[in-house]
Design goal:
- The structure holds 3 protein chains of 3 kinds.
- By secondary structure, chain A is an alpha/beta fold.
- Chain A folds into 2 domains: about 10-190, Thiamin diphosphate (ThDP)-binding fold, Pyr/PP domains (Rossmann fold, 3-Layer(aba) Sandwich), CATH 3.40.50; about 205-330, Rossmann fold, CATH 3.40.50.920.
- In chain A, about 35% of the residues lie in helices and about 20% in strands.
- Chain B has helices at about 105-110, 135-140, 160-165, 175-185, 205-215, 215-220, 235-255, 270-280, 290-305, 350-365, 370-375, 440-455; strands spanning about 10-15, 25, 30-35, 40-45, 50-55, 60, 70, 80, 260-265, 310-315, 315-320, 325, 330, 335, 340, 380, 400-405, 410-415, 420-430.
- By secondary structure, chain B is of the alpha+beta class.
- Chain B is elongated and about 130 Å long.
- Chain B folds into 4 domains: about 10-110, OB fold (Dihydrolipoamide Acetyltransferase, E2P) (Beta Barrel); about 135-165, E3-binding domain (Dihydrolipoamide Transferase); about 175-245, no CATH class; about 260-455, Chloramphenicol Acetyltransferase.
- Chain B is about 30% helix and about 20% strand.
- In chain B, α4 (about 175-185) runs parallel beside α5, α5 crosses α7 and α9 crosses α12.
- Chain C is of the alpha/beta class.
- Chain C has a single domain (about 10-340), classed as 3-Layer(aba) Sandwich (Rossmann fold), CATH 3.40.50.970.
- Chain C is built from 13 helices and 8 strands.
- Chain C has helices at about 20-25, 40-65, 80-90, 105-110, 115-120, 155-170, 185-200, 220, 225-230, 245-260, 290-295, 300-310, 315-340; strands at about 95-100, 145-150, 175-180, 205-210, 210-215, 215, 235-240, 265-270.
- In chain C, a hairpin with a 2-residue loop joins β5 (about 210-215) and β6 (about 215).
- Classes of the chains: A alpha/beta, B alpha+beta, C alpha/beta.
- Chains A and C meet through α3, α5 and α6 of A and α6 and α7 of C.
């Protein structure tokens, strides 16, 4: 699509990510992509398909299965002035590189008294919904959102998939981008008017007056579906897409709740100690006296994500759960 | 005593490896110290002669305490310590400043001296009857202030039973934070609003409905923004909400208040005769209706029997400041409000009449002021115009009495041994037995009767 | 052993430090600077002064720590000075250094002023990490000193990245990463060694084998204690060096750096050395014999160098005293300046969390 005719074009989330990569590689020769199977294979989820042929092996680098080494190498290359984009296959694998992400990427700037910024972008897949069981399905982005010194993004729309990478690369500090596995094949029309995303703001995807459904990433489509159902029930739901999980856009979150006076936070991670807990907590801290009902949370069941379809579905937040939670708050 | 680790506050000097008079060099090991983690050799940072050993083996001393004095010149002496360059005189092992006291202070240091002068002690706390932990726990759980509980145990000790019998300090009405805030802004009493949320929680919509029904939404124009424009379904909702409100409040009243009921029939011949006489000489605008006389009498009686004029809160009666007579007004769309005629006992009848007209008109058009809805100290319901002879009302919490008047009817009535046809009214009293007994109620109705027999004094 | 990409040193069998023959090793490298190692008086004076600066600086740290002026963990390098000084001699200011938590020696040998290092120990605003890092996290962008890393092995991937950047940009620079024998038990070493060899990165892997991973002796944590041989298995040049002899270290480092600049990929040096003091400031040294420590002290790198210089009659007590005095003055100045230096205000707590400064979120 990228070289296609201008104007609205049917595209997918995957293609939007690829187009963003292509644009970044074109725009700045300091940019390179590195990760397991990003080259010849075309990326585990096909995101970088064709980029090797276009940009060559120096800038589309296949790495050994050494998450710690290649993430750390990305950190070092960023500290030396390059603009690496490191792809980790899934968030579960990123734990093998957690030392580098937390102890180096997030920390070096501060530890060095501001001398060494780390302009690194790390992309990875997150989330369940594809029957990949307990070592490929978890949503651990909330863990990363706990860490000061990094920015955490969760593009949930085709526009954000297309337009978050450029500002992420422009950020002088480490940025982690979490791409939900169920979104890659989502297709739609890319809004030709969309431009670089302001990474400090959440986005109201659908305005409403009676309740705020606050979510991000793979749960956004579910929240939108829930809002449709609620509309039929006479409840006007506002859908807030956090999209930047750190730093959280408190103003948009609390502004929405101050309008609707009720909130359901939807998060595919486990409830205990979740990002949903953080959002809920900020709401009660900042707009307690606007609340007309307890803040509801819809999260995954506290279980390693199982393989069987009906079990996996039962474990994950579904639109019907969001609808029920909204009714609890409104009725 | 050198600092041999970031977490070290003190150390035990185990052994001296040098003697006074011995020559030592920078870097020599001079002593062995035991820390909480291990035994470590202590080196000295100066070259010179050991002059004095200041700390005996086996002694625990805080970090920073000089251990020995090393002379580095013919005259100069300075303590071999953790800070050799900061020359200072040897000091006793125990530091003077509290900040330097090691965390693990010897136990005896914390024990008070046996004959410590009382003056040094902080003033004793206010005497609260002795209680045990169970009682304190129970009191805490129930939100009971123990200092307000009378102890019936030995020596005034508060017992478990005492706490169990003490009512908690005011029942907290469940309401959402927004509802609580709106109630304050719109001058709506949470207690008067039924909760439509789960478990009867009062929510913003309930407050708005109550406020709107009472007319305070428009009256409080200064209220900040959160009052949203009313959606289309608001009118129907309002009636429902008011039904809910009345239902919840009356249910609460019947649930919580032990009512007793009294009734008496009052001869109104004198009062009505006086009224007709008054009306004959007055412009239409100043003419009275019987209800005005009844209300005035009810107000004056409340002043005379103040035990019925006020509120039952926090398990005790709180008298009202002034008589603010709640007047039950039925609304055309259904429902009921009982706004206050402020200081009704002090109003001359024409003023009261005017105030009543104004109040009823505003109640029915939804333009009541906030204080009118929350201030009544005793309420009167007059169902006379509805055709019934008597009404035994339900008290509006937290008030303690409700006065009812029925229709003024002509009945055969005997006075002074003579039977005649007279206009009479049945006055009733519903009263809170927690606050008063029947004798007080009787005194009240008698007062009303007497007042109505001297209408010129009303 | 043989290793595919081992150029010259492949002829050098991996030897233990004790049996290494300096004369024979000395023949091996083609030197970039003639006669620097071992024969040049002024060069030796520089080496000596650099080692003495580290030694006296750390001795002063012990004193200041005991007086509670310095807090936290303080890992002393005393005994290992020849490694930092010898390796640093082989590097240019354009090269980069990634270090460990025992890095005062590396920082001082790299040329970071003693005052900036001492002020960091004090946690002062003038410290080389603005008081954010302390003893274990010295950083200096001007000297391309990419930090003390206190996660064993954690600096290795980062160093590979610095080398990768140079490689991609065609810069003739070398990244030197110091780490200890303990790091060879970490996955990050093996991942990095493989990646660096696979991509032929300009990386000098300087392994300071001081025989103890904290308190665990080498044979108690490694099934194969010949570290150089293990590194060589990744297909890189690797050999062991007497880390107590600054001349031997410098020669080996020059040889390795030359090979790296010539494009033959990463090199691994196993620098056999010993720390004379405890793991961190004070520990009871229960895990090693006093006799062993004394034995290694006889091979004190500073004494070894001065003896060598004395033997050439180019050196005397007076000259030594002069160097000692200069070093003492430098350290006194560093301490004095650190004492007087301003502290970082607590209001600036959130500075440097992100480049946009105070992140509040």
């Amino acid at each position: 699509m990228g070289n296609g005719p201008a104007g609205e074009a049917k595209t997918t989330y995957r293609e939007a990510l690829r187009e963003a990569l292509r644009e970044a590689l074109d725009a700045d020769e300091r940019v390179f992509l590195m990760g397991e199977d990003v080259g010849r294979y075309g990326g585990c989820f096909g995101v970088s398909l064709g980029l090797l042929e276009e940009f060559g092996p120096k800038r589309i680098r296949d790495t050994p299965l050494s998450e710690s080494a290649f993430v750390g190498a990305g950190i070092g290359a960023a500290m030396a002035g390059l603009r690496p984009i490191v792809e980790i296959m899934t968030v579960n694998f990123s734990l093998l590189a957690l030392d580098q992400i937390l102890n180096n990427a997030a920390t070096v700037l501060h530890m060095s008294g501001g001398q060494f910024p780390v302009p690194l972008v790390i992309r990875m897949t997150t989330g369940a919904g594809r029957q990949l069981a307990a070592q490929h399905s978890h949503s651990l982005e909330g863990w990363y959102a706990h860490i000061p010194g990094i920015r955490v993004l969760a593009p949930a729309t085709i526009e954000d998939a297309r337009h978050m990478l450029a500002p992420a690369l422009a950020d002088p500090d480490p940025v982690l981008i979490f791409e939900h596995g169920t979104l890659y094949s989502a297709s739609g029309d890319l809004d030709p008017a969309a431009g670089p995303v302001d990474l400090d703001t959440a986005s109201v995807r659908r305005p409403g007056t009676d309740i705020s459904l606050i979510t991000y990433g793979g749960c956004l489509p579910k929240a939108m579906a829930a809002a449709d159902t609620l509309a039929a029930d006479g409840i006007s739901a506002e859908v807030v897409d956090l999209r930047t999980l750190r730093p959280l856009d408190d103003a948009t979150i609390t502004g929405s709740v101050a309008r609707t006076h009720r909130a359901v936070v939807v998060d595919e991670a486990w409830r205990s100690g979740s990002l949903a807990a953080e959002v809920s907590s900020r709401i009660t801290e900042q707009v307690f006296y606007e609340l007309d009902a307890p803040v509801e949370r819809v999260c995954s069941a506290e279980v390693p994500i199982p393989y069987a379809r009906q079990l996996e579905e039962a474990a994950l937040p579904q639109a019907v759960d969001i609808v029920k939670a909204a009714h609890r708050a409104v009725d | 005593m050198p600092s041999l680790g970031a977490d070290m506050d003190e150390g035990v000097l185990l052994e001296w490896l040098v003697r006074p008079g011995q020559q030592v060099h920078k870097g020599d090991v001079v002593a062995v110290v035991e820390t909480s983690k291990s035994t470590i050799e202590v080196e000295c940072f100066d070259t010179g002669t050991v002059q004095h050993l200041l700390v005996e083996p086996g002694t625990t001393v805080p970090v920073g305490t000089p251990l020995a004095v090393i002379g580095t010149g013919p005259q100069a002496t300075h303590p071999a310590s953790a800070a050799p360059r900061r020359r200072r005189a040897p000091v006793p092992a125990r530091p003077k400043t509290p900040g330097a006291v090691p965390h693990k202070a010897p136990a005896e240091a914390r024990r008070p001296a046996p004959f410590a002068p009382d003056a040094a002690r902080p003033p004793a706390p206010a005497p609260v009857a002795a209680t045990g932990p169970l009682v304190r726990h129970l009191a805490h759980d129930r939100g009971i202030d123990l200092s307000a509980v009378h102890g019936t145990g030995p020596g005034g000790r508060i017992t478990r039973t005492d706490v169990e019998h003490a009512a908690p300090a005011g029942r907290r009405i469940p309401a959402s934070p927004l509802a609580r805030r709106l109630a304050e802004e719109l001058h709506v009493s949470l207690a008067d609003v039924p909760g439509s949320g789960a478990h009867g929680v009062v929510r913003a919509a309930d407050i708005r409905a109550a406020a709107e029904a009472a007319g305070t939404v428009t009256a409080s124009a200064a209220a900040p923004a959160p009052v949203r424009p009313a959606p289309a379904r608001r009118a129907a909702d309002r009636a429902t909400a008011m039904r809910h409100a009345i239902g919840a409040l009356m249910a609460r009243s019947k649930r919580e208040i032990p009512h007793y009921y009294l009734s008496t029939t009052i001869d109104l011949a004198a009062a009505l005769e006086w009224m007709h006489e008054h009306n004959r000489h007055s412009p239409v605008s100043e003419r009275l209706v019987p209800a005005a006389l009844l209300l005035k009498a009810a107000a004056l009686a409340a002043d005379q029997v103040p035990e019925l004029n006020g509120f039952w809160t926090e398990d005790r009666f709180a008298p009202g400041s002034g008589v603010h007579l709640g007047v039950a007004v039925s609304l055309r769309g259904g429902g009921l409000v009982a706004p206050a005629l402020h200081h009704a006992d002090t109003l001359a009848l024409p003023e009261l009449m005017a105030a009543l007209k104004d109040l009823v008109a505003r109640a029915r058009t939804g333009r009541l002021r906030g204080s009118e809805t929350t201030d009544p100290t005793i309420t009167v319901t007059n169902l006379g115009d509805q055709g019934v002879e008597s009404v035994f009302g339900v008290i509006y919490p937290p008030q303690v009495a409700l006065v009812g008047f029925g229709r003024v009817v002509e009945r055969p009535f005997a006075t002074g041994g003579l039977l005649g046809v007279r206009p009479v009214v049945t006055a009733t009293l519903s009263a809170d037995h927690r606050a008063t007994d029947g004798a007080v109620g009787a005194r009240y109705l008698t007062a009303v009767d007497h007042l109505l027999q001297k209408p010129e004094e009303l | 052993m043989t290793a595919a990409r081992t150029p010259k040193p492949a002829a050098n069998p991996v030897r233990t430090a004790r049996t290494a023959n300096p004369a024979r090793t000395a023949k091996a490298p083609r030197r970039t600077r003639p006669d620097t190692a071992g024969a040049d008086t002024s060069h030796d004076r520089d080496l000596l002064r650099a080692m003495l600066l580290i030694r006296r600086f750390e001795e002063r740290c012990v004193e200041l720590y005991s007086a509670a002026k310095i807090r936290g963990f303080v890992h002393l390098y005393i005994g290992e000075e020849a490694v930092a000084v010898g390796v640093s001699e082989a590097l240019t200011p354009d090269d980069a250094v990634v270090s460990t938590y025992r890095e005062h020696g590396h920082a001082l040998a790299r040329g970071i002023p003693a005052e900036a290092v001492m002020a960091e120990m004090y946690g002062k605003a003038t410290g080389c990490s603005h008081g954010r890092g302390g003893s274990m996290h010295l950083f200096d962008a001007g000297h391309r000193f990419y930090g003390g890393n206190a996660i064993v092995g954690g600096g290795l991937p980062l160093a590979a990245g610095l080398a990768l950047a140079d490689r991609m940009r065609g810069e003739p620079r070398v990244t030197c990463c110091f780490f200890g024998d303990g790091a060879l038990a970490e996955g990050e070493f093996h991942e990095t060694a493989n990646l660096a060899a696979l991509w032929g990165l300009p990386l000098l892997l300087a392994c300071e084998n001081n025989l103890y991973a904290m308190g665990t002796a080498l044979p108690r944590e490694h099934a194969q204690t010949d570290l150089a041989m293990r590194a060589a298995s990744y297909g890189m040049a690797a050999w062991a060096v007497d880390g107590m002899d600054v001349h031997a270290v410098e020669r080996a480092a020059r040889q390795a750096v030359e090979g790296i600049r010539a494009g033959s990929g990463p090199h691994f040096l196993e620098l056999r050395t010993y720390r004379f003091r405890a793991h961190s400031m004070y520990d009871p040294d229960r895990y090693r014999d006093k006799a062993e420590i004394e034995q290694w002290k006889e091979r004190d790198p500073i004494a070894t160098l001065t003896e060598r210089m004395r033997a050439r009659s180019e050196w005397d007590d007076k000259a030594l005293a002069t160097i000692e005095r200069l070093v003492a003055e430098e350290i006194d100045q560093a301490v004095e300046a650190s004492e007087k230096a301003p502290t970082e205000p607590a209001e600036d707590l959130l500075r440097f969390v992100t480049s946009r400064s105070a992140e509040v979120n």
